[in-house]
Design a protein that fits this description.
The complex is a heterodimer of chains A (268) and B (95). By secondary structure, chain A is mainly alpha-helical. Chain A is built from twelve helices and no strands. The chains are: A mainly alpha (268), B alpha+beta (95).
Chain lengths: 268, 95
Amino acid sequence: MMTDSTMPAQAPAAAPSETQAQLFPFVLQLADTSLILAHRLSEWCGHGPILEQDLAMANIALDFLGEARSYYQYAAELEGKGRTEDDLAYLRSAVEYRNPLLVEQPNGDFAVTIVRQFIYDCFHYHLLLQLKSGPDAQLAAIAEKSVKEAAYHIKWSSEWVIRLGDGTEESRRRVEKAIGNLWRYSGELTTPSATEQALQAAGLVPDYAAIQQQMAAHIARVFEEATLAVPEGVFMQKGGKDGRHTEHLGYLLAELQYMQRTYPGLEW
Amino acid sequence: MTQKEWPLWEVFIRSKQGLDHKHVGSLHAADAEMAIQNARDVYTRRLEGVSIWVVESTNVHASNPDDAAAFYEPANDKIYRHPTFYQVPDSIKHM
């Protein structure tokens, strides 16, 4: 991450208000989520099944990385303790990360990556639509910029779910297995943590019930076209948003943070 | 597992409204919708275009290089077919 600013709107010169400052953990959660998913997608770079999809995943990874930076910069400002976006990304341990469990799950095969992406895109796109017209000007500005990217992401992953589901015997077997393994992480996205509940009560964070309905409707539509069944009665895992992660996040952060941890303060 | 290559698609990009679509290259994709998405990712990452056409390469029929003499050389000495005696106003671009 460089020092140049890619903030979509001018940061307010005044210190954030008390109401705004409450948003810090939520903005940080959004930042962590985008960064971790960006990192997972970037692991495909040079390993994609074909050149065209290698590029597509690297593009999407960069979209998420850009979004993560905007959130980290805003989070640093909200916190007001002199930490920078780099401090927040590179110098926090796994238990301090607030991303939902879904995005830290390993890439697996292409079907796993697509299903993970599809579930998250369904949430992300509809969340951004809400944030775009939300009460916080800075979050609204970031969402307005990112929602255009998210609209493409959801189109990309939806088309792939359809083709894998309604494709060959092998693609169907793999995508069904991926859905079976990842579905348990889908519920956390729209299950508010205690922090989110408080912010929702204060009207600062959108209501997840509406987003959950929009997600379900989109998933049902895509799965129907893909001739796939929407799993029912799955026990939903959670904890990521409270810092209780699967074992995978530690390994991911070890790689992501290696340079800053080994050479503190390193710049290039 | 059967190894089947995806078909090849030729990609045409319009760089600005009002200009024609230009051939920019080709790529592999399973179908037309995916070919357009792939073209978006491969060929428009640096603001190259506002519109994309894709055509399956097998649908392009080309002239035979062996016919070059018969096809093109007869035009060599027919200069009167060129509208070179007009002055094009400076404000007309892309002629």
